[in-house]
Specification:
With 50 residues, this protein is of the alpha+beta class. It has three helices and two strands. It has a two-stranded parallel sheet.
Length: 50
């Protein structure tokens, strides 16, 4: 994913993604750094901090 589209001013308040992106902690971290809400699928074996 390229984050320049968000920087270009395209409106986005939240993101959804499938398991392929959901298991990538770098992707989730980027969304958090951009201040975007997100809902992503993760494999059932994925550790999740609460």
């Amino acid at each position: 994913m390229r984050n320049d589209s968000h920087a270009d001013g395209l409106p986005a308040a939240w993101v959804t993604a499938d398991e392929a992106y959901g298991q990538d902690w770098n992707f989730r971290r980027l969304l958090e750094q951009l201040g975007l809400g997100y809902v992503v699928a993760v494999p059932k074996s994925q550790p999740v901090k609460s």
